[in-house]
Amino acid sequence: MKRTVENELIAWKSRSGRKPLVVRGARQVGKTFLVETFGKKYFESVLTVNLEQKDDLHPLFERMEAKRIIQELGLYFNQTIIPGKTLLFLDEIQACPKAISCLRYFHEEMPDLHVIAAGSLLDFALREFKHSMPVGRIEYLHLNPLTFEEFLSALGDDKLVDYLGQYRVGDAIGEAVSAKLRELLRMYYFVGGMPAVVKTYAERHDLLEAQRVLASIAITLQDDFAKYGTRAQQRNMRQVLRYVPRNIGQKVRYVNISREVRSDELKTALELLELSRIVTLVRHSSANGVPLGAEASESHVKPLLLDIGLCNHLCGLNLPDAADLLGAQEGRLAEQFIGQELRALSPAFQEHPLFYWHREAKNANAEVDYICAYEGNILPVEVRAGTSGSLKSTQMFLAEKKRSFAMRFNMDRPSLDSFSIDIGDKKGVKGVSFTLLSLPLYLAGQTDRLLREHFQSNE
Question: Within 13 A of 250's CA, how many CA atoms are on the CB side?
Fold first, then answer.
């Protein structure tokens, strides 16, 4: 399967001043497959060292001498390691913390050697890291599940991917093309973006088989909880994990998770799930300026799951219920989908935290699903599962923050319109003029490009 992030790896390979690369991401998102596939395509040889399986190699990294380590690895695996021609891949590097420190010396002593490390539980290792971190001597690459467009490519629908990549606001989208994209989006809701599930579905076009793979991944992720903390914490993590998919887009209220477990213990479980990257927390921001994280709240959060397919599976959605998908679950799934797509829009070398905005005032409650920053502009983003819906919260945000541009994702045709309205509150009536870019959900992956084209055309 072609991953867009492979372009980042290609650029890294030939970049001057390149540093060892650390690939970060949850379990089962395809880190090992990505790196080994890249290595086979662009290097004469690849040496993969799985430090979780090869614990007898851990002592090699006690003495941080890059050339000696490379020499001994070559002897151990009976393989010649040639800088510039060999890719050294240290998989599951969190199992050997000293190896993380050694990345500094690979950079300083052997800058021509291409080194990539990966680890699913790396965030836990870094949180409790007791060794010297190679600050400034490593680079990061963040890997997420397959996006909708990567899903289309895996199914062989490359012409649709090209079409989405060339779409311009104002172009008409034919009903047949729109209907096909809506149906494929609906399928993505079920299958999701976990590589093993997508591969199974692409090969067999059998949703039941895809569900079996999803079930296996869900069990594997929960089995890993034993590595995260105490038995009580593991129990709490399972309880929180049951809560999250049923409460996508809802503010976390610990009393709704359990009345028997203390809220601080449930909060710890939620934080552990975030560290494992199984859960993403969307934080409230007052959104008075950039960066949005400067005014983010740790006590007002909404959860998203790693993957929309896992979300459906953990909700217990069975195939006979498929016809009802765009019913009870549609709003939550649309918000989950847009959250995943927005996270994937960021350059792979940096993470993309998500934010939302709410106003809790008497007779004037309002909530905007997502708040994004684009080149100094703060944009409210509303998500709707159907073709209709009020923009009252967005309008209140625009009036309060004195902004003039908003986005909406729904299942209607794309549009770009200007509005002038009056908003009344206890302080009086405010006039608001704004431009609304409305995109169908299946165009979410083109958000950055379409925003860039809009703002450039208005300079």
Answer: 15
Kindly report, residue by residue over 386-426, the tens digit of the pLDDT. Answer: 877 778 899 999 999 999 999 999 999 999 999 998 776 66
As a whole number of angstroms, the distance between CA 192 and CA 211 comes to 10
Domain final residue pick, 320, 351, 382:
351
Range of the domain at 417: 356-457
Q: Where are any strands of DSSP class E within 121-224?
A: 139-142
Q: Are the beta carbons of 434 and 418 closer than 8 angstroms?
A: yes
Tokens of 294: 């400067």
Q: How far is it, in rounded angstroms, from Cα 396 to Cα 415?
A: 21
How many residues in the chain? 459
Residue showing tokens 């490379």: 70
- Looking at the fold, whether 189 and 168 belong to one and the same domain comes out as yes
The helix or strand, by DSSP H or E, that contains position 255, with its residue range, turns out to be helix 254-257
| Domain membership flag for residue 1 | no
Q: Are residues 398 and 281 in the same domain?
A: no
> Which of 351, 375, 404 represents a domain boundary (last residue)?
351
To the nearest whole percent, how much of the chain has pLDDT over 70? Answer: 92
State the number of CA atoms in the 13 A half-sphere of 273 facing the CB.
Answer: 28
